[in-house]
Amino acid sequence: MEEKKSLLNVNVGILGHIDSGKTSLARVLSSQYSTASLDQNPQSKERGITLDLGFSTFSSKMPQRWKDLQPGKYTENAVIQFTLVDCPGHASLIRTIIGGSQIMDAMILVIDVNKGMQTQTAEGLIIGEMTADKMVVALNKCDLVNESERADVIKKTQLRLSKTLSNTKFAGSPMIQVSANPSSLPGNLDPTNPVPNAQGVDLLVESLLNHLDPPKRSFNPKDPFLFYIDHCFPIKGQGTVLTGTVISGSISVNDTFELPELKMQKKVKSMQMFRKPVNSVHQGDRVGICVTQLDPKLVERGLACSIGALKQINGAVVSAKKIEYFKFPCNTKSKFHVSVGHSTVMATVIFFGSPKNNNVFENKEEKSGKEEAVSEDFGIGREYLYQNSLEDHPNQWALLQFESPVYCNAGSMIICSKLDTDITANTCRLAFYGKVEHIVDYTKREELSKLKLYRIKEKEGSIDRIADEYTLIGKDLFKKETDMSLFVGLKIKKLSDGEIGVIECPFGKSGKFKVRFQSGNLQKEQSQGKLLLQYKRFYFTENKKLAQ
Fold first, then answer.
1. What does the mean pLDDT of the chain come to?
2. How far from the centroid of its chain's Cα atoms is residue 350's Cα?
3. Residue 354's Cα: distance from chain center in Å?
4. The dihedral of CA 109, 114, 115, 116: what is its sign?
5. How much of the chain is in helix, strand and coil states, percent to nearest 5?
6. pLDDT of 262-292, one tens digit each?
């Protein structure tokens, strides 16, 4: 029987436009701060903006509703530890924001009530739709609105936001009025100073407890350990600390794990969760792992995992869902920035989809009575239709060829973007997203040939003459040097009435051919007209055999 847990860590991303007050909100919500929080980075202090991910935490008793949603998993006095992931708001730091978003269970979208939705607010909302289950909106800086106009300004902002959110998964999300730093007090981010007398924070915490649902966690000991590293630093006399979030599996003190990018194995010396020593951690936990004999300069962001759990890959098939706010075409053979965890690399893409019917030559009467169900799961060996671009409907996939190898496994989330878009263009740079369905080795042709992607080719010819009631002679479809054996047995259509026959054999040496029809209704007066040949050309196969 699985042991009941007394602590559940919930990772809540704080996203919004630059200077909307995200870090100020993290300051007044939190009771403990990590070394990477409250803009402690010297460059952040110098520029006065958040440049990196910041982490802090506060705890609350787990409501009965959360226990009821996952019966038998948590003790009577279980506690929720909310880990706040303070993401930068500047457009140029989108890679950092995407990396932070992939560890989120839920999000707080911070909006300056005086300005409403701004460019990075919108990008944060889009990222949240991809990665977070639930959202709470913090309408910040309410104290800066003239008191006589405050109620009207807040109401108008709420109405506009409700309309924006109505077309997203976050429709109906609670909107809480807060003032994270009343009167814009200087030094509010210095943890040695008193916490500002913020307004609305208790209501915000109450909303998180009432609106969010407990994230599902697996405690299966067989799950491979996967850890996203976001910071690394030395502690004199102790060793090097890797801080990050457990994406899957678990790890304990004295266990050995791998840093695949460095091709190193390390033993866990000790671990802490926000300065509290722990012996083991599980999926969803934020932790600092201390190891010895590791130069911290070698690790900034990266991955740690069970030994052998991650392989370096150069290609993958991913599910692909287009982001509706991306206004540029997503074309096959174009290049995108692909983010996996904290890594972002360039990749060339081929889009493909699942056709409703794999038979390109089916009569309308046959088709209407035999509509095939389309599977939503990618399957190696199934046939898929090669596309010139990503289409805006279900059952779309992308084949990615990475310009430089990445470490990732099946099930990993990917976000594809055009990050070279001008950041002043006020447009969405996030193109599509999905999960890795299948690993592909682009260096092995035989492996690529297992991907049955095809294009539909069309050729149009003419009727030369009717030979008898079952047979006609066709022309203008092939050159005289064409290898006709490739086309024998393929179906061909008379465009005048849609009747379908089969190419039987070549006729003479000039490129003419015989077509046989089962109906036996051919007549001499039908000796003129067009013929249509459609067939599949498989993209990766070296076999020239054609199919329909």
1. 89
2. 17
3. 19
4. positive
5. 15, 40, 45
6. 999 999 999 999 989 999 999 999 999 999 9
Rounded CA separation 321/324 (Å): 9
Report the C-alpha gap between 537 and 206 in whole angstroms: 59
Closest CA to 41 of 117, 111, 93: 93
Which three-class secondary structure string do you get for 467-526? Answer: CCCCEEEEECCCCCCCCHHHCCCCEEEECCCCCEEEEEEEECCCCEEEEECCCCCCCHHH
User: What secondary structure letter does DSSP report for 388?
Assistant: S
Cβ atoms of residues 100 and 28 within 8 Å:
no
Q: What is the C-alpha separation between 322 and 325, in angstroms, rounded?
A: 9
Indicate the SS3 state at residue 19: coil
Q: What is the Cα–Cα distance from 436 to 413, expressed in whole angstroms?
A: 6
- Residue matched to tokens 């993209």: 539
Q: Phi/psi of residue 201, each to 5°?
A: -70, -40
For 282, residues 6+ apart whose C-beta sits below 8 A from its C-beta are 217, 219, 246, 249, 250
Amino acid identity for residue 352 in this structure: F
Cα distance between residue 189 and residue 445, in whole Å: 56
Q: What is the pLDDT of residues 44-101, one digit of tens each?
A: 444 444 457 889 999 999 999 999 999 999 999 999 999 999 988 565 567 777 877 8
